[in-house]
Amino acid sequence: MVIGLLSGVASLSTGYFLRAAGFNWPFFTSALFQCVNLVYAVFVLEETVQRPPDDPLDGSPRRTAMRQLAYGVYQLFAGASRRRNVLLVLLLLLFSSFSFANVGGISTITLYELNQPLCWNEILIGYGSALSMTVFLTSFVGVTVFSRCGVPNLVIILIGILSVMAAMTLVAFAKTTLMMFLVRLPMLLAIMPFPMLRSMMSKIVSKTEQGCSRPQMAVRFSWSSIYAATVTWYPGFSFLLSAGLCVIPLALLACVGLLGVDESKEAKEAEALIPGEEDLAVDYNPPLT
């Protein structure tokens, strides 16, 4: 939420910065702030993860880390029930497919705004980007309100997916500045599925394996290529494609609903998968002398 709010403020001011100083100074300022962040992360922040001791037989910390990573991925499915494994795979596919459709569609909105028939300038681009960043705040409020009202997690995810489908469909047919601003309204709850899916996946895997259940996808370049290939005959095709691809996470969500999700039961099963987790943690964290 904080990242979204600060990104919105930055987007709102960037247009005026570009008009006043040109394109070089904004890039220089951004690079300067990134250097400050890097210095702060390297010299100020403390390491929160203790490194395990090197393998005396191997002598290579990298190979030891790779073995631990492979073992963690293996433990995601080893020893668990078939139902739990199927549920985890469905949630991973649901998260990945929704990320592809959502991030891909949103990443091409600026290209659409720069071209005809909109032809926005840097000020309007900044306003549009700032409005798009409000989705982080509204989605956070939506998750909080729906959760306190007792709305099931799957229903919250469904609302978020439908929000993306509606927004992408409207963007494909937006031809005026007013319409392009209004399409942000159905997008207000588009981020809700991400925290809900992360929460559900975290509850059905062991605490020591949660880092292995977070897939990341880089899709911006592929969607930019799709937009470049279709902009001459229909600029809104990539957004219709994004809305159509949302059918895949909807189908996976239906499968998860049919399978049933008992988070309390799944959490107990996950904690019982590795009885010696605590002993393993002690082995990797010797007492300090």
UniProtKB/TrEMBL annotation:
Its main location: membrane. It comes from the Eukaryota. The chain crosses the membrane at residues 25-45, 86-112, 124-146, 153-173, 179-197, 217-234, 240-261. Keywords: Membrane, Transmembrane, Transmembrane helix. One of its GO terms (molecular function) is transmembrane transporter activity. GO terms for biological process: vacuolar transmembrane transport. InterPro entries: MFS_trans_sf (IPR036259). It is found in: Membrane. SUPFAM superfamilies: MFS general substrate transporter. It is a multi-pass membrane protein. GO terms for cellular component: lysosomal membrane. This is Solute carrier family 46 member 3. It comes from Coregonus suidteri.
